[in-house]
């Protein structure tokens, strides 16, 4: 318990930076999703936390996890903020590149043989 009239410092409820929202509007966002800022969108009128997300994404593409770590926000909160910015057109969300698929060994051997014959 804190003494009467004194506030706790350093503790912010997760829904506060997300403007009261507890879940992202887009289920497709995960921590590996790449966020790219639209440089033509105005930044005025954004909440302070959304503005900070945009500041971090403007120099280049960042993952949700990187933005979360840089801003020291929980990943779930960052996903909510990013989803709202994607909805408003401020951010573009891209899924990360898929893992390499297994290659056809016979095809690779034919390519190797053709290269050796050059």
UniProtKB/TrEMBL annotation:
Residues 1-10 have a biased composition (Basic residues). Residues 1-24 are annotated as: Disordered. This is DUF742 domain-containing protein. It comes from Actinacidiphila epipremni.
